[in-house]
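WARN retry 2 of 3 for item q-0093 after timeout on previous attempt; input resubmitted unchanged.
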Amino acid sequence: MIYWIFLALAIVAEVTGTLSMKHASVSGDFTGMIVMYTMITTSYILLAIAVKKVALGVAYALWEGIGILFITTFSVVWFNESLSLMKMAGLVLLMAGIALIKIGSKKASGSSSNNSSSKSSNNVSNNALNKQMKEA
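OK item q-0093 returned
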């Protein structure tokens, strides 16, 4: 569970860093660049920690995908960027893709845990059989 929290914090740091970059480029404020460098670095560090237990494909898809959703939303609200019908369709497809990747990873991890428990019970059966053969 803690690794999912690291992933969520990595997403927040990425969004903050990217929005700070935009703010700095619009306002000319150098502090925004410092915030950007700090937050982007923090984001990668937190992502590196998260992928210790979260599958890389899932973590990266969530990190980048959710980041894009929030960055686009805040860019429209704070920086008056346009949101065309094509961009909205892209965001909807992005959310669908994230959902499919997440669902696919749950099914894959469920089947791999079934395989490992099956292998474990096979090992127990084989050990019992070997013991019986030695005794005979």
